[in-house]
Amino acid sequence: MSSIGSGYDLSAGQFSPDGRVFQVEYAIKAVENSGSVIAIRGSDGVVFGVEKIITSTLYEEGSNRRVYSIDSHIGAAVAGLLSDARAAVNRARDEAANFKDTYQVPIPLKTLCERLGHYMHYFTVYGSLRPFGVSILLGSWDEVNGPKLMEIDPAGATRGYYGCAVGKGRQNAKTEIEKLDMSKMTCRELVREVAKVVYSVHDEVKDKHFELELSWIGKETNGQHQLVPKEIYEEAKKYAEESLNDSDDEDTDM
Known about the structure:
By secondary structure, this protein is an alpha+beta fold.
């Protein structure tokens, strides 16, 4: 049964006859139209990679970042509407701060994701609100539990991952991630692979210019979420560009 155009997409709190909530599906579509965001969980941490689409040469490099620190021990990367992402990130920071004030310990990643997921789900059940048009990938690392990676989608659902991709190139990115032996790779090795995946899924026809953003959290950073150091960033970027050029040369030869 199809109910597109039948008036069932006017409210987030209304189901269609075939059990769909169109407002949530539209929010997911907003995420799918965003630049690709990738996160991979390795043996000693989590690495985030973002394809930040540049729509104007007038933009200042480094502005409108899509990687955030929720707390010092939790990092995040976002795909979808940037304004919605900022609102969700601010809520996550409030939850982390409130948990620490109450219990005097940093909030566990799973607890944070459950609280933020509940908050985002709240926006899908009332007609006066609209869903967040954003998916959030969150990662953490500590000596006891090791690396953790989770995703929250616009419906507020949370999932744990070893490797995850959202945005325009998610399908191709997932295919590339599945080829990696992630559990045996360190963050330093994964930085190169994440950059390679971002470059490989970038659509040069539709989006000519983009800025690569890389961050990590793990043993390398003593459990602190940080941007990848410039030297390692440039090395990973060069590796990704060379891999892409080699792939193009092979296609030309064939």
